[in-house]
Design a protein that fits this description.
Length: 396
């Protein structure tokens, strides 16, 4: 594979992977405006974020078998089409319940892009290069939290929150066209695979029983759940508690994203000297220590805006190293059923992320403590799963 083709392939896969995060991040600065227009509260608007996470989790399980049965591209086209139509519907929402429902459907569509891109990494690249490719995808992926909330803040102030969903619809159209024109067929459809519920569930159970899968899938998912707690809690934290403007919130979100992106690229260099198993252990240990200190300080009121941003930055740096390595180790044992494995991994990740975001919304209090407490609980749980589960992985 030439360098030019390698670069363009990573770029397209990164664009597909970024569709979900763009859909999450771009409308965050508009929470107060949406609440005002739809005559509801910011906490209720946050449920549209939770419904998106739930939709992605459910959609992962739907698209996994479809990607293995029909190949990567046909389910991808269907999902992107659903995403485009749901985004159009969000533009004309007249109630919060309607927005919550359409966001669920929008997520069902967007997750096809995420599942397909992850499965295609396993299709197109050697196992030994998977962690590097995932790190490169995170670099492209990282553009979304840097650009999306910042642009979303300015768009909301200048044109209203409806325009955000018009732009998301346009991004969906771009991904559909780019996938059709430039994305290669990477997998021959498995016509022997049944789409009946019983064999599909059996396929998921076969994957789930692999020790390496359940150890690193749940480790990565629990670690990543802390990110969803941060995303759900950040509008309240910065725009309500610290009273920053929508545009400023976007810039803070972008600044914090640099930690996630930068550390994922440092991870690529670290892989030349260390194994993925070593890196994920060190990253999670640092993450646990950071959030415990963050929680104690939040309880006693030690931290202002600057200190809060710094600690969140460190948290995201740890996650930027843990995430690509956990993804690579989760999928490493699989070849033929990589689509099912990637879908199940994504479903676990998004399902736990949705639960974390809902938990943040339940505590409708003007405090950072619920968000930080959930980040602490998920990080400690991830570290525990890693240390218990890796003892059950057979030595090669």
């Amino acid at each position: 594979m030439t360098n030019k083709k390698y670069f363009s392939l990573i770029l397209i896969l990164g664009s597909l992977t970024a569709l979900g995060p763009f859909s999450i991040d771009m409308y965050l600065p508009g929470f107060p405006a949406i609440a005002k227009d739809l005559d509801t509260t910011v906490g209720k608007v946050a449920l549209s974020l939770s419904s998106f996470f739930i939709g992605i989790s459910a959609g992962q399980l739907l698209y996994g078998p479809l990607l293995d049965r029909f190949g990567r591209k046909r389910p991808l086209y269907a999902g992107l089409s659903i995403y485009i139509l749901a985004s159009a519907g969000c533009i004309f929402c007249t109630s919060i319940d309607m927005l919550i429902a359409l966001r669920f459907i929008q997520a069902i569509g967007s997750c096809a892009a995420g599942v397909a891109s992850i499965a295609m990494v396993r299709d197109l690249f050697p196992v030994k290069d998977n962690a590097k490719v995932f790190a490169l995808l995170m670099l492209v992926l990282g553009v979304s939290p840097m650009i999306a909330p910042t642009v979303g803040g300015y768009i909301t102030v200048s044109f209203g929150w409806h325009m955000v969903f018009l732009i998301l619809m346009a991004i969906g159209i771009f991904n559909l066209v780019a996938s059709w024109l430039w994305l290669p067929d990477s997998y021959k459809p498995d016509t022997t695979m049944s789409l009946k519920p019983k064999p599909i569930i059996a396929g998921f159970m076969t994957v789930l029983k692999v020790p390496q899968f359940y150890t690193y899938a749940f480790t990565g998912a629990m670690a990543f759940a802390g990110l969803f707690a941060y995303i759900a809690g950040s509008p309240l934290l910065f725009m309500d508690i610290f009273e920053v403007k929508e545009e400023t919130y976007g810039w803070i979100f972008a600044l914090l994203s640099i930690g996630l992106i930068g550390s994922s690229q440092i991870n690529t260099m670290l892989l030349k000297r260390f194994k993925s198993e070593q890196l994920i252990f060190a990253a999670l240990m640092a993450q646990v220590l950071t959030v415990i200190f963050f929680l104690i300080g939040s309880i006693y009121g030690w931290f202002g805006l600057e200190a809060t941003i710094f600690l969140l930055f460190i948290f995201l740096c740890c996650l930027g190293i843990a995430s690509p390595n956990s993804s690579a180790l989760t999928l490493a044992p699989f070849t033929k059923n990589a689509g099912t494995a990637s879908a199940l991994m994504g479903a676990v990740q998004m399902g736990l992320g949705a639960l974390a975001s809902v938990c943040v919304g339940i505590f409708d209090v003007r405090s950072a403590i619920p968000m930080v407490a959930i980040m602490t609980a998920t990080s400690i749980t991830a570290f525990t799963i890693l240390n218990v589960g890796r003892k059950r992985i057979p030595k090669i």
